[in-house]
Amino acid sequence: MPKPKGIALGLICIAAIATVILLGGSIFEVNYAGYYQIKQAAVTGQISVKNTPGLYLQLFGDIYRYQISDMYYFSKLDIEGGAGIEAAPIKVRFNDGGTAEISGSIKFRLSTIEKDQQAIHVDFKSYNAVKQDLVRQVVTEALMQTATLMKAEESYSTRRS
After folding, report:
1. Distance between CA atoms of 43 and 145, rounded to whole angstroms?
2. Does residue 66 carry a pLDDT above 80?
3. Minimal CA–CA distance to 109: which of 34, 31, 30, 32?
């Protein structure tokens, strides 16, 4: 018959292993190449940046993942790279009153300087917000401002980009 100390020690070991398995996703985090992560510490709220790939301690903090370089698509057709309302074509009005839905794509790259990365996170709070509230808004404004410089017919007949 096993000794009570041996049973207690065995139960403690099993509980410790189960705890590491269940909470492991909150203790450790992995950053992959091509991404950076913003970590907001659980207790202090301090924001730090992880730029290098590899395993590090999360310690129950909140992790926000940002892709360093990406494409942003806007089109009616899913086959052209976009899907859903966030990838809808951009509507413009030409100076003669004609309208169009513009499809296209843009490649963008976020800063690799930690101070800039923290500032982007403080301003936008997530990668998806960067794509929608920064990239899409800048592209939309550029297309809308440019469309007013020509007539709809000029855009179509001369195939101006």
Report:
1. 46
2. yes
3. 34
Per-residue pLDDT averaged across 76-92, rounded?
Answer: 79
CA distance 121 to 88: 25
What is the per-residue pLDDT across 92-134, written as a single tens digit (0 to 9) for each? 999 988 998 988 999 999 999 999 999 999 999 999 999 999 9
The answer to whether residues 139 and 147 touch, using CB atoms and an 8 Å cutoff, is: no
Q: Decide: 49 and 37 in contact? Cβ < 8 Å.
A: yes
pTM: 0.77
CA distances from 109 to 19, 105, 106 (A): 39, 13, 10
Query: 62-99 burial by CB neighbour count: b if 16+ within 10 A, else e?
Result: eeeebbeebebbbbeeeeeebeeeebebbebebeeebe
